[in-house]
Amino acid sequence: MSSRSVTRHAASSVGGVAARVAARLRPDAALRAPAERSVLDDIAARRPWNLVVKAARLRARRRLPSLEPGVTVVIVSYNTRDVTADTLSAVQRRSPAGTDVVVVDNGSTDGSREMLRTWPGIRTLLLRSNAGHGVALDLGMCCVRTTVALALDSDAIPISDEWLEPACRPVLAGEAALAGLRSRRGYVHPVYAAIDVRTFLEAQLSFQVHRSGDAVKGAEDWGTNAWDTGELLTSGVDPAQVVFVERTENSANDLPGMTVAAVVYHHGGVSRESTGRITESALAGWRSACHAIGALTVTEGAR
Hints:
The chain is α/β, with parallel strands linked by helices. It has a domain at 68-245: Spore Coat Polysaccharide Biosynthesis Protein SpsA, Chain A (Alpha-Beta Complex). The protein has 10 helices and 13 strands.
């Protein structure tokens, strides 16, 4: 066994002992929402990524006095190289000069990381493994240097130069702390969601999914014993400080997915098989529809 393997095995053993001790001290750790867990809770629940988030939050809170007015677009990617490239191209083409873009990659193995390392004009956080979409969004928010962050799915494409305005304007103006797509269950979904960064950090908000102890994966009662990405975040904000952006009719009859406020398009997973693999035919159809409405230029989507 190599020295690295020995070290990794020893660390795992020590971590297991610590988790068992912590679990005796905090038997209800898993019942607490991720943002409400203490360090001991995270150890007991075996959630090491939450410890990384906690450290990132501490660093980010120290930077609060130096936040600059403006918007940072935060995108999480995981094995979505081609659609992420389309989204990044459109974001950079459609956004005002000076708009910062942060991409958090969740340990992709499809060439996304190599692409992102050489992509001009963005900042990247390349995680060593898949931490989950919510954790990655939390970490991305902790990298933001502006007063407002806009969470955008890696397969959501701006189709107007005013795409940022519906969600970001009320937050920039101080009229809201959170604004974005109204989900079917009435919370802001991070397909397209703007948030006041100070509020996110000081209120210990989180984009993570949470399942209580009696929630069986695949048979959850969402909104009762399980909460989707962005659901607990929305409930953590004063309702008077939440602005919803409604869905609108798609710009083209053959455009799959949905349009939000007529400025953001989201393919709703239709460019993937049930296995999660993106097929060439589905990707070609997605790009054809986007080209038809001007969401992509002729050169974009040609990689």
